[in-house]
Amino acid sequence: MKSITVHGIEKETEKLINARAKSAGASVNKTVKELITKALGMDKATNDHRDEFLDLFGVWTEADEKQFRKAVKDLEVVHPEDWK
To answer: Cα separations (Å) of 28 from 14, 17, 35, 37, 84?
Structure first.
């Protein structure tokens, strides 16, 4: 694996990286590699937000679907006067 040197990292960035590494009990090198992986969208766990929406998931019964379709029925009608 190739090594990369990054010049001119700001003090605040360095402090945050060091603090993150320390809190994770990891090396700075490992921490930087994880940050780069996440920033590039290569971390599968970062891209999977399904758990954040579990309260919205479910299955409709036929009665639920019928009630929904009835509630939005008037939204399917196009009134020409609205387009003038």
So the answer is: 10, 7, 10, 14, 63
Residue 26 to residue 3: CA distance in whole angstroms: 18
Looking at 19-23, 26-30, 39-43, 70-74, which range is the least confident one? 39-43
The first and second tokens of residue 60, run together, are 């409709």
Query: Nearest to residue 32, comparing CAs of 46, 21, 48?
Result: 21
3-state secondary structure of 71: helix
C-alpha span between 46 and 36 (Å, rounded): 12
The mean per-residue pLDDT over the stretch 56-73 comes to 90
